Amino acid sequence: MDHPSARVLPPSAADRDRPIGVFDSGVGGLSILRALRTELPQEDFVYFSDAGHAPYGEKGESFVSDRSLAIAVDLLEQHRIKGLVVACNTATAAAVHLLRARHTHLPVVGVEPAVKPAAALTKTGHVGVFATRGTLSSAKFRRLLDSLQHEAQFVLVPCDGLAAAIESGDDAQVRALCDRYTRELAAHDVDTLVLGCTHYPFASDVLRELLGEKIQLVETGQPVARQTRRLLEEKGLLNPNGSGAVRWQTTGSTDALRQAAARWLSL
């Protein structure tokens, strides 16, 4: 005798009211959260800063994947999130495939250096990429770059220490490091620079000052926000009545996270 298949119920109002989880190794993911709040003003969010284990970009891949899986479980159990945004290039490279395989019911959005849009924008055919060593050495990034090998030439610059300097709010060190790394572009005909770490948009004013107006900066916040909207819409999970509230969680300094949010998000 055939058994009727289980009926899939549509999302309830309670499902739509649940927050979206966003995590990063520190405050860099605030650049993604900023774009998400602009794109989805009626959604509520939980932002998880794993500052106690930062920076991810200088850690091993297995460490980053373990932390990513643990954070996802925490956000699901503590906050009943309805979607997850991995607001970290290094964590995306190390763990987004594991997160999607383990949490098949959960919309998971990752970030990656915007080299494809940059290849479409460049006029000289030379694109700079600022990123962490963890991102640049990952198999995921290499596959992405290989798929674009006929589209442009990429100048890869591992920006050791830059995420940590932004994280700590050390403006003098941020400027010194930006000056060092932009000099590595000088020998190339670069007209487009990919900010391949979610921390780096918070140094964009310094980078524009050092590079001038001829080099355009490309980041990933808006595409990530649009993809998040699309996935939630597909599942009927968009919240029409949320307040846009953000809850904060960190393994590091609560005061440092609040100060960063006040500085970069006016929260």
Automatic annotation (TrEMBL):
Keywords: Cell shape, Cell wall biogenesis/degradation, Isomerase, Peptidoglycan synthesis. Pathway: Cell wall biogenesis; peptidoglycan biosynthesis. One of its GO terms (molecular function) is glutamate racemase activity. It comes from the Bacteria. This is Glutamate racemase. Pfam families: Asp_Glu_race (PF01177). Belongs to the aspartate/glutamate racemases family. GO terms for biological process: cell wall organization; peptidoglycan biosynthetic process; regulation of cell shape.
